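G., the chain you wanted modeled:
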Amino acid sequence: MKQEKSCGAVVVDNNKVLVVKHNVGHVSFPKGHVEEGETERETAIREVKEETGIDIEVDTNYRYTTSYSPMEGVMKEVVFFLGKVLGGELKPQEKEVSKVDFISFTEAENSLTHEDTKEILRQVLRDIKK
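Predicted structure as tokens:
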């Protein structure tokens, strides 16, 4: 079975969370494939910047994973870190993303397409309330 890996971030700012709506229709957190020689952290920072225009720092103490099979014969692991905004201008990557926005946690839970992503949001909420 072929293995793939993507990394991204759950970016929280002012009690809101950054979500992306992909051109193909699903809503998720920004993420993308790890490039050769990149660490998970570097991939997460790069992918958030590419997809949303936002510069972030990530807290690698908060690492969330999920796995799924996007197609037969392929298993994909996705790693998300907790992210914090450093700057930048919110702007979708037109090639892949139709919309980027900071929305409330409740709105995010209702908007996220996949149940495993919703569970990661719930884990993040538990962790930031500690």
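Residues 2-128 form a domain with the Nucleoside Triphosphate Pyrophosphohydrolase fold (CATH 3.90.79.10).

Shout if anything looks off.
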